[in-house]
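Late entry, 5-O-phosphono-beta-D-ribofuranosylamine complex.
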Amino acid sequence: KRVAILISGRGSNMAALIEAARAPDYPAEIVGVLSNRAAAPGLQTAAANGIATASLAQSKFPSRDMFEDTMTQVLESWGADYVCLAGFMRILGEDFVNRWQGRMINIHPSLLPAYKGLNTHERALADGATEHGCTVHFVTPGLDEGPAILQARVPVLPGDTPDTLSARILVEEHRIYPEALRMLASGEAALA
Ligand code: GRF
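Prediction complete; structure with ligand written out below:
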């Protein structure tokens, strides 16, 4: 199965997927990385791993639909069967989401359905949460609302800051994202 990854920044989850997909028995291959920011550091990492890259700035397009149609053309040129969102910081329109329904997944830094949206670690700390984590889920039209494939939990510890908490969770993100993609690509996980 051929997988494209959409990023906007650092790309550490992307790197974890690239690394996992190197295993000979992994059921998916990473065929391209697309960023909506040309300066995303993850693009360098992908290129250094010999993976095709592209960047498309939404601001250069007259509408979100035209931006997303062009993204689709790039993904199709790579022959992508699946799309992984990995720190892609744009909300996707309904046409794009429907086109990839059941074949597009995202990693979100909270135990969904808790803390959809941004600044999840700040909000969990402000609430005095004792547990926090991350979720890999199918992308559906509602933001951060699709069914979960895998979750990982971590404790919130005394003295935690958004940075220490996010670092603890990132380790788990890098573990569960490759495992969730493996489940999707092997047919073990499917959108009902
Ligand atoms: C991760 O925390 C991910 O959960 C969120 O955005 C961040 C991306 O980090 N969606 P990276 O670019 O994968 O390093």
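The two ends are 20 Å apart (CA to CA). Will revisit in the morning.
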